[in-house]
Every structure is written in C-alpha cells, then in structure tokens.
Amino acid sequence: MPRVVAGPSWNPPLNKSVVVSEQALVAPVTVPELTSPSPAKAAGPAYVVLAGISLSHFLNDTMQSLIASVYPILKDNYALDFAQIGLITLAFQFTASLLQPVVGHFTDKRAQPFSLAVGMGFTFFGLLLLSVAQQYLVILVAAALVGLGSAVFHPESARIARLASGGRYGFAQSVFQLGGSFGTSMGPLLAALIVVPFGQPSIAWFSSIAFLAIVILWRIGLWYRPQIAAKKFAALEQHPDAPSSRRVKIALIVLVALLFSKQLYVSSLSSYYIFYLIDKFGVSTQAAQLYLFVFLAANAVGAFLGGPLGDRFGRKIVIWFSILGALPFTLALPYAGLYASAVLTVFIGLIISSTTSSIIVFAQELVPHRFGMISGVFFGVAFGIGGLGAAVLGKLADHTSIAFVYQVCAFLPAIGLLAVFLPKLPKTAR
User: Fold this and answer.
1) Fewer CB within 10 Å: N-end or C-end of the chain?
2) Residue 194 has pLDDT above 60, yes or no
3) Where are the domains positioned within the chain?
4) Closest C-alpha to 330, from 306, 347, 305
C-alpha cells in the first residue's frame, strides 16, 4: 500500500503533496482544521451578543439624551441664552468627536476588551456631577465627561456588532443603532416624567442605568477577549473590483458630508425643537418633550430599517433615498401647524435616520482594515461637527428666531445630492 505522507497533526504542511491510495480516496478522511475561525463563526451566540451590545447602546444614549432634555430646566435655573445652550451640546459632542477616532485607531492596533465598561464609568461620574452642578462651567465639564464615555463606547461597540453579525453587517449595525436611537428617544420622555417634576438632582438616579451598563459591558468584554486573538488570523484581501484609493478618499469625504447633513438636522430638532414648539404654539415644556419623543422614536425605527434594506437593495440606494427623501418634509415643517408638525417629524425621523447604518457599513467596506478608526470618525467627527453646528444654530436663533433656524435647516437634506460621487462597491462586499 502506498504510504501516506503527512506533517504533524497540529500543523500539516500546505506546500507538499499528500499521496494517498485509491482506497483512501474512497474512504472518508478526517482532515484537521487548518483555518482559524472567522470572527463571525467565533461569535457563538451572535444574537445574544447583538442584543447585549444594543441594550448597552440603549442605556448609553438614554443617559446622553438627558443632557438635551434638561435644557429648559438649566435655561430657567441659570438664565442661559441659546448660545450657552448650544455650547453645552458642543462640550458633549466635541469631546466625543475629538477622542472617538483616536480610540478607534488605538483599538485597531491593540483591542481592549474591557474598555467599554471603563468608558461607561465616565458617563456614570458625568451624570452625578450634572445632578449637583451649580455653575455653568461645572455643567460644561459634566457634559464633557458624558461625551468622553461616548468616545470610548462607540468605536469598539460598533466593531463588536460587526463581529457578531454572522455576515449580515447591515442588519447587525441596525440592531446596534436601534438601541442607541431608541435610547435617545427615551431621554425626553424620562425627563418629562422624572426630571421635570423632581428637578435637577433627580439626574443622579440615572447613574444606576450607567452601573447596569457597566455590568453588561463587562460580560461582553469576556466574550470579546477570545475574539481579539481569533481576528488576528483573518486576512483581509482587497477585492479586484474595489475602487481606487483616490475614489475611496473622495467617497469617505462624501459620506462624512452626508452624515453631517443628517446629524445637523437631527441635532437641530433634538436641541431646539422643544423651544420651537413652546415659542410657536405655546405648549408646555412637558408636552413639548412628548412631541420630541415622537420624533426620536420614529428616528429609532428608521435606524433599524435602514440596515436590512441596505443588505437587500444596496447601501447606495438607501443613502440616496434616506437623505433626499426627507427633503419635502423638512421644507414643509416650518409652515405646518402643531399636529401636522408632529406627523411631519415622524416621516422625517423614519426616512432620514435610515441612512446611518448604510453610511457606516459602506465606509467600513471601503476601508476594511480600519473598522475602529472608521467607526470613530463617523460616530465622532461627523457628530462633533453636528455639535458645532448646533452651537452656531443657537447663536443664529439668538439673533433671529427659532422659526428662522428651521427654515434654514430645511435645506440640509439637499446635501444628499453628493451621493452621486459614491462608487459602486463589488457585490461580494455587500
């Protein structure tokens, strides 16, 4: 019988021929596993991990949205103008935007499985400080601490969502985004039910949410730690039909511009919609917060739908629709009545938020070896620019009116025309 030549069972040589007999060809042969498990396979119970990271995103963004939701209380208690309100948004979003790409770049090279739990600790202390702040500078520091927690949380959590996706990247990103969007929508509702009746000190109660998030993220870190070793063996090869490096750079700039237009419009509603409703229609603060909750809830639903639609029909199509599709509704909003405004904001939230998952996954596929940095850039820089825009809009509102601000912002979705410069990705990338 011819002799079977094989290397050590734990590391069979790949570059040598293996001679087998005819009987061996017929009989079933057990071959040792040569390839390391991919992140998607190593994820194990992917849906459990996705549920955990989405829940953590929900808790994280619920706490963050409290900052904008308590603006009327802070404005009345400390006689703040709109420019100072905008600076609070800037302190929160600029801190997050400045550090998120840095965190993402660092974790691309050296992942830290428990960094998410540590980052949530900054949010915990930020909320406690905000609950006892008596000076405007302390309020800014508290907002910056919450932003710091966001900077640590988003890049690595987006990476974990992709690792647990099982190849359904848009779906996984949508599940992740759903938690954050729904958490953002809960802020005004909780502020109306808890913070408005019980005052600024009641913000400290929400630190218990941060503690729960720390526990969940620590458990996710235990799952993530072995995935870090597994993903080091996964080779990333560029598709032969992938766009050139020059087109990739142009596409990334376009994607940042598109996300900026979306985020600035959402930021204008999140930061000033309450004041717009109070000023134009004379509603109470609690009623205005409920109307804001309606918009943010629609925003959450749209964020979830965008990813699966991108997986099915292509991300570029979803990006086109979600940015430009909101334009007719944003143009009509400044001239609508109270109830019509509520209906319009539902359509705006559903349509404009569906682009987030598609933009982020599109960018990740353009630069597949820099998931953390790309996630940090799009969660951080674009959102930070949105915070800077919110401060500018606050200054504009002081010199004109809130109604004029929404007349100007109505044209922001027109920036979606830049999507024409996005390249067509290979089908295998989708």
Assistant:
1) N
2) yes
3) 45-231+241-429
4) 347
Contact of 405 with 247, CB cutoff 8 Å: no
Please tell me the predicted confidence (pLDDT) of residue 281: 92
The string of pLDDT tens digits covering residues 136-146 is 999 999 989 98
The percent of residues in the chain predicted with pLDDT above 70, rounded, is: 80
Say how far apart CA 258 and CA 378 lie, in whole Å: 10
> What confidence score (pLDDT) does residue 178 get?
80
Q: What mean pLDDT comes out for the span 285-298?
A: 86
CA distance 273 to 375: 28
pTM higher than the cut 0.85: no
| Nearest alpha-carbon partner for 303 in 150, 180, 406 | 180
Q: Is 158 exposed, middle or buried (0-12, 13-18, 19+ CB in 10 A)?
A: buried
| SS3 of the chain: helix, strand, coil, percent, to 5 | 80, 0, 20
> What is the rounded average pLDDT of the residues 92-100?
77
C-alpha 414/C-alpha 404 separation (Å) is: 18
- Type of residue numbered 429: A
Is a pLDDT exceeding 80 seen at residue 85?
A: yes
Measured distance CA(40)–CA(428) in Å, rounded: 16
What stretches of 199-337 show up as alpha helix (H) in DSSP? 207-231, 245-281, 285-313, 315-324, 327-332
Looking at domain 45-231+241-429, its CATH class is mainly alpha
Contact 265, 415 (CB under 8 A): no
